[in-house]
Input
Amino acid sequence: MSAMPGVVAVNTFREAVRDRVLYNLVFFALMMIGAAILVGQISIGIDRLVIVNLGLSAISAFGLVMAIFIGVGLIYKEMEKRTLYSLLSKPIRRWQFIVGKYAGLLLTLFVNTCLMTIGVAAALFYVSHAFERSDVYILVAVYFILLKLAIVTALTLFFSCFSTPMLSTLFTIGIYLAGMFSTDFLNIGMVTQNPAVKAITRVLYYVLPNFHNFDVIGQASHGFAIPPQLIAQNTLYALLYSAILLVGAAAVFSGRNLK
Amino acid sequence: MTSAAIEIDGLTKDYALGFWRKRLRRSLDNLSLRVEDGEIFGFLGPNGAGKTTTLKLLMGLIFPTAGTARIRGKSIDDVDMHREIGFLPEQPYFYDYLTARELLDYYARFFGFASADRRERVARFLERVGLTAAADIQLRKFSKGMLQRAGIAQAILHDPKVVFLDEPMSGLDPIGRREVRDIILDLKNQGCTVFFSTHILSDAEMLCDRVAVLVDGKLQGVGAPGEIVSMDVSAMEILFELKEGCVLPQDLALATKKTGAHYRAEVPEAQLYATLEKLRGCDARILSVQPVRPSLEEYFLRMVNREKAASHAVEVLAR
Output
């Protein structure tokens, strides 16, 4: 029974690979090579900073685009093309299908992110001819990007269980942007005297995913240490938030009539 | 009495329509059926009759508004029941990026077959549906008929006890249709129950132990193809001979055809005795009297028209 999500996950990964989703890596590789050569020529002393900033930001952006645009179609496509009819006539539960789809996309994002990280490392090595001890924080920043993508993927999957790809994209992007500024909601609540606004901003702060904590690109590029507590806190937060969204997605999908 | 492979009890499905989803359209109305173990059961009806809705309910793809169903004694809500069934959806569509071999291997994994068993099984079923030569071609390049064959293979890959086929002949050429008929008969010989929906009546007449006719979501009749039509005798046929110089009354002459030395009159059942009296008056020699049984197609069309007339009458009354 436990193998079912794994079977779906591998197939989802295979679909992404065969749909040439990983072709974006070629573009990324070319961009990193170009940046490394260019930065090596025009920047004095800050070439590492620029490469790491550019590389991590690109990993994050590419990952987000992939998570949203593949994620919103994951369930919808199976329903629209009716491939689900044959699949759900097999002994697989709907929640296992949801978990499998999620794991498959996460696996795709993981492979994609790992390959891009290798690209960043190569560019970094090209400009400075050596790795530093503080470069380990680049890996932490990449890990945080992956955690963020885990939440975003769960969000897209949740929305795609009951809405169209267009709406799911809008919802996910909206929540992502709001989540980037979720701490600002809390600040607004602190300065206002209106109790209703206070209550609403507080609820928004706790309900919206807090993506701000996952952004350590600036620290990593400067070689600043990232506290282990933050690593533990973000890991726990991403696991919990994704799990809640997946439970919601499975609940919605389990009760849905397939047209 | 043999055990039931499928028991359907009062299955009803309403779809909510409109923006506020307040309007309801009944797609399936209180369907009750029992399909015995080892039967080939045909589910007949025009497009939109509720055949696919029934199959989707049985597969757990949609949920009933009312009623229940059991397959081999297990509720349709029980996912483990799916180990014992196979399903071919109408106009099946599969993952474009997989080859036929990969598709079957993917589905076989849900049944926990070991790797070697999977390989052997996939090759065997590809051969059975005539796809061995196309086994390693991506499904995006498959014709409709080839997809149908791949669909049949995935439905029977795990040796199910009950197979549901939604319009299995659709999209197939005459050779393909014959091959599918052979597969269905093979399945029956292996003790499998086959439940298939179709609107190709000759296939149903040829294959089915029993059929059910569904029109506008309502069950119109169930029985063996010969039996179901005999319940609905439309007329009586009288075969007779006339002596030289005898003349038939004009009304009877109009309903009579002459073939060689014999005359054949087809009259409504209610007028049988009156007609026989008239023939006696003409000194005719009665050779045989037998009911005229409609073909399954005639029966089917009459059921459809009757249901349409009834729903039209309801609409008129409602106005």
Summary: The mean pLDDT of chain B is 88. Chain B has two domains: 4-230, 235-292. The domain at 235-292 of chain B is CATH 3.30.1490 (Dna Ligase; domain 1).
